[in-house]
Specification:
This protein has one domain (6-118). The protein has five helices and no strands. The chain is 69% helix and 0% strand. Helix 1 (6-21) packs antiparallel against helix 4 (74-92) and helix 1 runs parallel beside helix 5 (97-118). By secondary structure, it is mainly alpha-helical. The protein has helices spanning 6-21, 24-27, 37-57, 74-92, 97-118.
Length: 119
């Protein structure tokens, strides 16, 4: 059964739009745990990409690192990796509903955590 991914899609799209609208001074401003908001967003995009790769290639595969394309690309990177994760869940959802729900909840929590940093 494909889990309801609308909460993740909404959170990812909202955060991506916030990053796209941020001026350079805010993108480059430090936040707790990261040298900048852009770095926090890139870390999130990399985490979402790694989750997608584990779903598609199995847990033993080493994830390839999403490149740093610069502060102004972070919003797009969040959007693409978030949508890729949703597509991977639809194509090859985890073996049971509980695993899919847990993966979704973790992804939404990660997006929300970065959104709070960007407040």
């Amino acid at each position: 059964m494909v889990p309801d991914t609308s909460e993740l899609l909404d959170a990812v799209d909202h955060l991506a739009d916030r990053f796209r609208a941020m001026p350079q001074s805010r993108l480059l401003g430090a936040v707790p745990g990261h040298p900048s908001r852009a770095a926090a967003g890139l870390a999130l995009a990399r985490e979402l990409a790694a989750r997608t790769q584990r779903l598609a290639e199995g847990p033993g595969a080493l994830p390839r690192e999403l490149p740093d394309a610069g502060a102004f690309a972070v919003g797009d990177q969040i959007a693409v990796t978030g949508h890729d994760l949703v597509a991977a869940l639809g194509d090859g959802a985890p073996e049971n509903d509980e695993a899919a729900a847990a993966l979704l909840a973790d992804a939404v929590a990660a997006v929300d955590a970065v959104a709070k940093l960007c407040g």
